[in-house]
Write a structure and sequence with these properties.
The complex is a heterodimer of chains A (about 270) and B (about 425).
Chain A: H1 16-23, E1 31-40, E2 43-53, E3 58-63, H2 69-76, E4 84-91, E5 94-97, H3 103-112, E6 114-117, H4 129-138, H5 144-157, H6 173-185, E7 191-195, H7 203-216, E8 223-227, H8 231-235, E9 239-244, E10 247-253, H9 256-263
Parallel strand pairs in A: 3-8, 3-9, 6-7, 7-8
Antiparallel strand pairs in A: 1-2, 1-4, 4-5, 9-10
Chain B: H1 2-9, H2 18-43, H3 52-83, H4 86-94, H5 99-133, E1 136-137, E2 140-141, H6 150-177, H7 180-185, H8 194-211, H9 217-253, H10 257-268, H11 270-299, H12 311-344, H13 346-355, H14 359-388, H15 390-399, H16 401-423, H17 426-435
Antiparallel strand pairs in B: 1-2
Classes of the chains: A alpha/beta (about 270), B mainly alpha (about 425).
The structure holds adenosine-5'-triphosphate and magnesium ion.
Chain lengths: ~270, ~425
Amino acid sequence: MNENRDSIPAPASPSASAAAYLQHPSHPPVLSARNLTKSYGPTTALAGLSLDIRTGESVAIMGASGSGKTTLLHVLAGIIRPDSGQVHLNLPGQSLLVEALSESARSRLRREAFGFVFQQGLLIPELNALENVAVALMLNGTSRPAAEQAAAGWLQALGLGGMEQRRIGELSGGQAQRVAIARAQVTGAGVIFADEPTGALDSATSAEVMQVLLESTIGAGKTLILVTHDDGVAASCGRVLTMRDGRLTGDSAGGVIAAGLAQGGNR
Amino acid sequence: MPWKLAWLLSRPGKSGGGTALLPVVAFGLVTALLLTVLAGALSFLRWRDELAFLYQLLAVLAVILLVFPLLTLGGSAARLSARRSDDRLATLRLLGATPATVAGITIIESTALAAAGAVAGVAGHLVLGPAVQLIPFRGEPIGGAYWLSPLTVVAVVAGVVLLAAISAAVGLRKVVISPLGVRTRQAPAKMHWLRALIAAAVVLAGFVVMNAGYASTAVAVAFVLGAFAAGLAVLNLIGPWAVAVMGRRQLRKAGTAEKLLAVRSILESPKAAWRQVSGLAMTSFVAVFGGTGVAMTDGAPGPVSGPEQFLSGDIRTGILITIVISFVMVACSAGVNQAAAVLDRADLYISLDHLGMPLKTMNAARTRAVMLPLVLVSLGSAAVSFLLIFPLAGMALVLAPLSILTIAGCLGAGILMVWAGLRTTRPVLSKVLAAGH
Ligand SMILES: Nc1ncnc2c1ncn2[C@@H]1O[C@H](COP(=O)(O)OP(=O)(O)OP(=O)(O)O)[C@@H](O)[C@H]1O
Ligand SMILES: [Mg+2]
């Protein structure tokens, strides 16, 4: 398990200069997908899709239901293997072909280099808020006291100070989603995937949660890849991709909010 | 309409045939064991002498001890079969089926699985026959006295099927009223320390009474039976509390993700954690209680001829059979409950897999959540029982260590059996995760 413990660095929030370096056009994109295809029986979920995503970008993926957004996210994150095509992951100091990794290596990649936010928090109901966040770090071998300390810091930063001991059932939908955002980032993951993170929230709460998500990710130089049905949410991202029938049909610069956040540099 | 839909739905779905097999196997085991225990107990009715009454009394005690865990296992199996159709039922509801239709389908389906299991159980009972017939009581094998009347067999099968139908209906109501989110919104149940205080008082009283002099044999028998009943009551009172206390202590110590998850899931409902292993607590209690008695009579020079010569050996045989059957049931019910829990929380497990939680960690946490209370409970209740009859048990340990060691060995083997039962649920989780890929 730990023969190459260092091969997947767990980047802390990169410094402003490091972020600038990684975003430079000459640096390889953090994720680079080529000719991805994926079918479920007769259904084609991905039909030869190619895509580059640079470090620090915030990318919104839009499209009708069933157009393949979740499938794309899962292939990029190494959750499922494509039928054909490649996903290259370029982290500082190393380059990986994601789908060539074994099941357990991809599992490790997901817990060390990536963060995930799902539509319904999907937090562990019998753990409290603090433990839910800390567990993500403990899986990487961090001791419980250190993990809980880091988790408390994240909860504080996301406006959940004082709620550490609450069980998930005792949190509102928006609060639970912020716990999920903390969990996704406590490991220092550089790439955050979010699949309709505000899909189950009302519009006011949704806006709050989105702001927290954007500030804590792209505001800190991380990469954010987000699936959404909401134009307002997409507008807060730097780049908007549209999908139809497993293909990209649009790739445009997004709203100004993200640009402002990214230039605003570190938290 | 429900019949036809139930038939359509019974075809293998996404969650596969494995989850239908589990409740069938569990119902089969329940029926086979129930019939076999009953057959053994009823075979004692063939004796008519004065010692027969004692044998029949002990048989009734054993049946009582075994019937409760059997019912618990039947209930878990019914819940599992009700649950496995949940995802398909949700689709049905979307298609406009009324709640009554959906309820009807679920009940029909679990009843059908129970009936299939019960029939298999009858076959199992018949297969077990020749082996069980060899077990000697009072110096002769059970033999032909083993066979039950067909009417009894039909009644048992009907009872098991009815139990399944009722459990499915009750379980369904729970699912309808409180989906997971509602249940977990409330804080976990607190276990009051008063339980421990009452229990300690009972144990103390029992200790004093047991060690007082006895005026006559009748009084002594009354005291022993009283202590036995008090002991079982104490176990049920103290069990959930002891599990909760152990959980809280372990919570502070839990240094890894799997330990934390296991302990938290125990603390989520100490009562449920206790219920899952309580059958074992009772057995382990009885084992020490009865085992000591047997060891004492073994150590002392007893009658070498006449009907009494077999008594202590027969009691030991009875205890060992009861222990083995209890463990089989606890192992099964742990497996069935865990399978149901995995299916219940399929979404959560899939999301944890996406986050990169290793399968190994999930399995370790699930196993630990059962094994921790199991070990606590079997050792704890053995200790309570040892304490209650301390002078005797202490002597037995010195005079007849082999009897006591046999029982200890059985307990150890049983714990391993439960662990094996949990292992059989690993494919259920792997399948659930594969569906998320
Ligand atoms: N595990 C699976 N088995 C079978 N078909 C699947 C599976 N996962 C996805 N599909 C199919 O692949 C296609 C793309 O699915 P995907 O989940 O990627 O869509 P989506 O764009 O995320 O939709 P939504 O907005 O509804 O979430 C759909 O037609 C879907 O039915
Ligand atoms: Mg989707």
